[in-house]
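Support reply, case 0932

Customer input (verbatim):
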Amino acid sequence: MKYYQDITLLPDAESALGFLWQKIYQQVHIALVEQKVDDQHSAIAVSFPNYGSKGFPLGNKLRLLAKEKGQLEKLNLARFLSRFEDYTHQKSIQPVPESTSHVAFVRRRVKGQARIEKDMLDKALLWSKKSGQNLELCLQQLEKSKPQIKQAPAFIWMESLETKTRNPMGSAKFPLFIERVELPEANEGLFNCYGLSAVRGEQIVSVPHF
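Our regenerated output:
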């Protein structure tokens, strides 16, 4: 990644930072989908320079990165954020500094307690049916390997455009969990259409962090 553009979110008394992230990141996602290089990938990445901030964990700054300046110019993010001019400050496209560290921002799928309990019951029912054992006994045995709920990473509420198209009356909102991973070196590759690092086996695509 050779070029970047920073967008600072500007909350006020009526529009909290978390609410702005929902609106701004949804527009960024739409922009990346429009410029995607194949069905599932983007050549443009996002990063969160202030990830881990107190208050809202993603901080108040979004950074877009690309190999070529022309890719960010073609994206023309200002067009997608025109309705939010009072709530964002977009800087000009700049070259990435020569000396940076390397991180990845990856999507994590986090199970809540209700989902874990349902999965456990489904497994116990299947085991009980196959083995002929009592359901309660199967549940007790599975309890030993029951997943523990860990502290969830930062997330943004998003709206699935595909789900909304299929079912206009249903809920299309979901939490997009985002985790930062420290990396010892740069790994090149593509990103998903949320701008997050794609994972290829054990290798995670990196972005410069500065």
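We compared this against your earlier run and they match. Two observations from our side: The chain has a mean pLDDT of 87. The first strand starts at residue 3 and ends at 9. Please reopen the case if you see a mismatch on your end.
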